[in-house]
Amino acid sequence: MTIQTLPTTPFSDQRPGTSGLRKKVTVFAQKHYLENFVQALFDVLPDASGLTLVLGGDGRYYNRVAVQTILRMAAAKGYARVLVGQGGILSTPAVSAVIRANAASGGIVLSASHNPGGPDGDFGIKYNIANGGPAPEKITEAVFARSKELSSIRISDGADVSLDVLGDSTLDGMQVTVIDPVAQYAELMGTLFDFDAIRKLFASGFRLRFDAMNAVGGPYARALLEGTLGAPAGTVVNAVPLEDFGGLHPDPNPVNAEDLIAHMTASDAPDMGAASDGDADRNMVVGRNFVVSPSDSLAVIAAHAKRVPGYAKGLAGVARSMPTSTAVDRVAKALGIPCFETPTGWKFFGNLMDAGRVSLCGEESYGTGSSHVREKDGLWAVLFWLNLLAVTGKSVETLVRELWTEHGRCVYSRHDYEAIPTAQADTLMAGLRAQLPTLAGTTVAGCDIALADDFAYTDPVDGSVSNMQGIRIILTDGSRVVFRLSGTGTEGATLRVYLERHEPDASRHDVEAQAALQPLVALAQTLAHIRDSTGMDQPTVMT
Ligand code: VG1
Ligand code: CO
């Protein structure tokens, strides 16, 4: 076995987005496309001698091929050891947990998360640092810069490593340890939650339907829910990770998880429904006939955190991404703890958690998590809810309604316009930006605008600045419309329009969200001319 240096030509399109580099499998399958990106990463990282790397992915098409390539390149980089999930599988939160539990220097996550998979679907790669969280922009930008100039890759010519048997082997002097993908993650969950209380809940006949969407969450949910916690067999459905997610879109929202919603609205609906995404870092929580918005879920978890053993001492603070509703801000205020507003993407929470300033974070995009790892964590959120239901004896719906009664309801929706030609989307955003200086203090489409800006974030820990993170239009009553372009898509551009209105009046808490948000939709149309500039009459998806 020897390390080879092979000539390569750079690609110009390897800039990581909101969460790593995501492209069609067909793009990744180009000669040296994956190798170039990994080489750019390894070139940016310091010397690896003596260091441990964690490696695994969500099991989607191309995962196994990529794992073997990266192992060969890690050997060439000089890592002492790679911990790889059995079968090349690790959920995103498990990668984070394994990095932290083993003092690894970092990890590589192979996933395009909630994007569809299969030969015609998407693939992705992301680097996480020693704290277990996504690399900050300083690193992702350096990798991108390096990717545009590199001229060679270094790779071992060793044979494929067997990924299916637990244990050690060597590859060109590097130790490869195939680990159980679930064990360390499951152990961590046991330190946070009252497993006895959840066991009793299931023993009492409580029924959960957990839809793993044929993705990587299945093995984790089965082991913990049906194994450790004694939920009946069959509680976890679509539990076997498939390379193409069975053709489904592994994005847990009421539109894509329609089968789960159908079960939760049936006459024999279980007590709680839940789903996780491709890499198991997202979660959706559903009550009987009652969909929980992710922003409300975050607020409920914050409000009741002290009831859960891992959080019994209270939360240091909370954080949410800017477009996420302000429900958690209201809870934080009542608890007397700080609430931070960050740009979209989990990488912005890492510094706050490392500095001990927040213990709980969330996004409107079905992402919730805490400082137990540095990624959002789908199954963790479901366990949190189960723990709350067990110790309060209340239903999912009751916990949310109590939140609304106390703080008012933040009526919320996100409208996505997908696959817009990039130039059109850029023009639309530029048109919005051009209006910003003159909007505050005016009335548009019947809405009184108090503030209009392009969200900029200064990291309170390291002072780094991220500009142009989304256009915010805030009304005098606190209602908001936010516009931003997605950084995870692989086809054209996706415009996301986030709508929020606070409803203090309890007699109006049952209003249908889309109807209640109509005035804001009209405002969005007036300001952004979405129909005219995209030709789209309706959003592709409303969640
Ligand atoms: C989306 C979500 C964002 C989330 C990101 C990664 O990003 O809006 O909140 O952090 O996906 O989630 P964007 O740039 O497309 O809006 V996942 O589950 O793909 O790791
Ligand atoms: Co995900």
From TrEMBL:
Gene Ontology MF terms in the entry: magnesium ion binding; phosphoglucomutase activity
Keywords: Carbohydrate metabolism, Glucose metabolism, Isomerase, Magnesium, Metal-binding, Phosphoprotein
Keyword Cytoplasm on entry: no
InterPro entries named in the record: A-D-PHexomutase_a/b/a-I, A-D-PHexomutase_a/b/a-I/II/III, A-D-PHexomutase_a/b/a-II, A-D-PHexomutase_a/b/a-III, A-D-PHexomutase_C_sf, A-D-PHexomutase_CS, Alpha-D-phosphohexomutase_SF, PGM
Recorded catalytic activity of this chain's protein: alpha-D-glucose 1-phosphate = alpha-D-glucose 6-phosphate
GO CC annotation: cytosol
Origin superkingdom: Bacteria
EC class (word): isomerase
Keyword Mitochondrion set for record: no
Requisite cofactors: Mg(2+)
Record field: transmembrane: none
A Gene Ontology BP annotation from the UniProt entry: glucose metabolic process
Secretion signal, residue range per the UniProt entry: none
The enzyme's E.C. designation: 5.4.2.2
Domain Alpha-D-phosphohexomutase alpha/beta/alpha: 14-150, 184-286, 296-406
Pfam families, per database record: PGM1_C_vert_fung, PGM_PMM_I, PGM_PMM_II, PGM_PMM_III
UniProt record similarity statement: Belongs to the phosphohexose mutase family.
Protein name as catalogued: phosphoglucomutase (alpha-D-glucose-1,6-bisphosphate-dependent)
Phylogenetic placement of the source organism: Bacteria, Pseudomonadati, Pseudomonadota, Betaproteobacteria, Burkholderiales
